[in-house]
Amino acid sequence: MRINYSMVLYLLCIPLGWNFALSGVENLSASRTVCFMIALLMTIYGGFLNAKHQMKYRSVLWIFFVNLLLILGYIISNGGTGNASIFGGNNWTLGFFLMHYWLNMHWTYLGFLNLPLFDDDFTFLLIGMSSSFLFPSIGFLIGKFWHKRSDKLMK
């Protein structure tokens, strides 16, 4: 049985996001920046390891597909892309949002950037989904090019 390094390292990044969720301060502190950089490097390295062990590209996309399903569940249960209400709203919508938030907790750093684009719940979901696709894919591509280069050097 092969280990999916990308998925394992992605899931190991989740506790790095606890720094964001549990501290009440909404600023870009040094510890948050360090945790974000560690999570970023770990997800890229997970994709790199999958490529190094000659796994298929789809092996880095499992978390992305889970995120995609959670977003689709959020949209269907919410009736659109609006904000989820904690009090008096649809419990399914809040459940999908919280599951997605937990799975992508280490990307909450990006939500604290002071851009008007990040004022919506759905935008936060898109950030997590895009990050779960982009960073492992970059690592996988780096690993593929590295593997091809090392094969040429060995010959």
What does this protein look like?
Helix 4 runs antiparallel to helix 7 (121-154). The chain is elongated. It has 155 residues and is mostly helical. It contains seven helices and no strands. The model has no long low-confidence stretch (mean pLDDT 81). The protein has helices at residues 5-12, 18-22, 30-52, 62-78, 91-103, 108-111, 121-154.
Name the descriptors.
155 residues, 7 helices, elongated
Low-confidence stretches: none
Largest sheet: none
Radius of gyration over all CA atoms, rounded: 17 Å
What's the total helix number? 7
Beta strand %: under 5%
Structural class: mainly alpha
Q: Indicate the percent of residues in helices.
A: 55-70%
Assign an overall shape.
elongated
Mean pLDDT across the residues is 81
Report how far apart the termini are.
29 Å
Order of helices and strands: HHHHHHH
Number of distinct beta strands: 0
